[in-house]
């Protein structure tokens, strides 16, 4: 992606980022930290952290974490918004 400033193109460097989201029914991903399933539970309002991971400014993958696991791992992709 490029942005324009004063008629010149400037390359944008993408960085890894993380967001906190509710775990939705039908979720079928494993936590990148503990390896356990990030699963929906009807009576528990659990949350997950979803991270877009960029390497050298290029998108590489998405990682999912239990919120607690992400914090214990030291927030490897920055503070989760």
Label the structural class.
mainly beta
Helical content stands at: under 10%
Q: Strand percentage, roughly? A: 35-45%
Number of strands: 7
Main sheet properties: 3 strands, antiparallel
- Quote the average pLDDT: 88
Low-pLDDT residue spans: none
Assign an overall shape. elongated
- What number of structural domains do the residues give? 1
The CA-CA distance between the termini, in Å, is 23 Å
H/I helix tally: 1
CA gyration radius, whole angstroms: 16 Å
- Write out the strand line-up for the largest beta sheet, numbering strands in chain order: 3-6-7
- Helices and strands, in order, run as EEEEEEEH
Provide structural commentary.
With 81 residues, the chain is mostly beta strands. It has one domain. The chain is 7% helix and 44% strand. Strands 3-6-7 form a three-stranded antiparallel β-sheet. It has a two-stranded antiparallel sheet with strand order 1-2. A two-stranded antiparallel sheet has the order 4-5. It is elongated and about 55 Å long. 15% of the residues are buried. The mean pLDDT is 88.
